[in-house]
Structure formats: structure tokens, C-alpha cells
Design goal:
alpha/beta, Rossmann fold, five-stranded parallel β-sheet, two-stranded antiparallel ribbon, 6 helices, 7 strands, 19% strand, binds flavin mononucleotide
């Protein structure tokens, strides 16, 4: 099953339009709209709970439902607009919730991360008002997915310069949509 993670706050989000065009080609999917999930950031109390559950091997606990869902997905699509050189905070909160050692990754005898996720491919879909800088958004997600979660292929689908006067938003969006080839 394809897992679609929607991190788009705006009703008429252009990032979501791109993601939907991709999902049409990928077929059936399960959707998580992060703004409606009531995700909580990690705090002292939750960290202590998480450590207790991990040390007693209770990976089936409801606390880890997002991690189990992520690890079991066949394909993952993340739609997140380019915000402040990165992506919306709700996605970071989600990552705090899924990154559970023992479910999405483990460490080998040399202390190196080994991915435990089933997905072969992750798509990161984004749009930017100006020029897209991949360093703190896409590159971070790609490193995490490939080097820590074991997801072999990570692909970027993007439309940029959408808010710059003189650039044709519709033309840029259409061009990206027409180039989507999963
Ligand atoms: C909170 C916020 C931060 C943003 N930061 C940037 C930025 O750092 N660089 C940039 O080029 N555009 C930035 N933008 C513009 C968005 O990247 C652009 O409008 C994008 O297409 C919004 O996606 P959406 O249509 O899916 O909401 C920002 C927009 C918002 C609302």
C-alpha cells in the first residue's frame, strides 16, 4: 500500500495538486493529513514513556502506530511545501513520532544504522515561492530515508519560482505535472 503524508496547510495547496497528480498514477493509497492527526512533539514525559516501551520491547503499543504504519508501507509519498528553507514543523513532529529504533531502523554491532522499512521508494513532493534550496528539506528527508530507514530510492518532484513576479505559475505547474513519471 502507498502511504500518502500530506503536510500542506493551505486549502488550495499547489504542493497537494502535484501530489494528487502523482497519486493518480500510483493508484490506491492510504492518506494521513498531518494537521488533523493532533501530533505531539516529544517532551520529557513522552521520551520517558518511549524509552520504557522500547526497553521492554513493547513495539505494538499505540504510541508507535505511526512508526509501524511507515515501516510497513510499500511506497511513501510526502507532500510538503518549502517553508523557511525547509518544510512545515508538523512534518518534523511526525518524524519524531516515526523514528523508533527497533521499528524503522536498528543499529548493527558497529553502531551503524540499518533500515527496517519495507518501502522501496519515497517521493518528496514540494513547491517553492522562489528558488528551491534542497539542503534542509529534501536532502534531509533523502538522507533519513535512504541511510537510516533503508528506503532505496528517493525521488524529488518540485515546482519552484511560483510566487515570483514575471514567472507563469500555471505554466510551471503544468510542466511539472506533465513530467511526472513514477
Ligand atoms: C510560512 C511560509 C514560509 C515560506 N518560506 C519560503 C522560503 O523559505 N523560500 C521560498 O522560496 N518560498 C517560501 N514560501 C513560499 C512557498 O514555498 C510557496 O508559496 C509554496 O508554493 C506554498 O505551497 P502551497 O501552495 O502548497 O501552500 C513560504 C511560504 C510560507 C507560507
Amino acid at each position: 500500500m502507498t502511504l500518502y503524508i500530506d503536510c500542506c496547510a493551505r486549502e488550495n495547496s499547489r504542493t497537494r495538486i502535484l501530489a494528487k497528480a502523482l497519486l493518480e498514477k500510483l493508484g490506491e493509497h492510504e492518506e494521513l493529513y498531518l494537521y488533523k492527526e493532533g501530533l505531539k512533539f516529544l517532551d520529557a514525559e513522552r521520551l520517558a514513556k518511549r524509552e520504557r516501551l522500547i526497553s521492554s520491547g513493547e513495539y505494538g503499543d499505540p504510541e508507535f502506530k505511526y512508526a509501524r504504519q511507515w515501516a510497513a508501507a510499500d511506497t511513501i509519498v510526502i507532500a510538503a511545501p518549502f517553508w523557511d528553507l525547509s518544510f512545515p514543523a508538523v512534518l518534523k513532529a511526525y518524524i519524531e513520532n516515526i523514528y523508533i529504533t527497533g521499528i524503522v531502523s536498528r543499529y548493527d554491532e558497529d553502531g551503524r544504522p540499518q533500515g527496517l522499512c519495507k518501502a522501496e521508494k519515497l517521493y518528496f513532493v514540494t513547491t517553492a515561492g522562489g528558488p528551491l534550496d534542497n539542503r534542509y528539506g529534501y536532502e534531509y528527508i533523502r538522507t533519513l530515508a535512504r541511510d537510516y530507514f533503508g528506503i532505496k530510492e528517493v525521488k524529488l518532484i518540485k515546482a519552484e519560482m511560483l510566487d515570483v513576479v514575471g514567472f507563469d505559475e500555471k505554466e510551471i505547474m503544468d510542466k511539472t505535472i506533465n513530467s511526472i513519471d513514477p
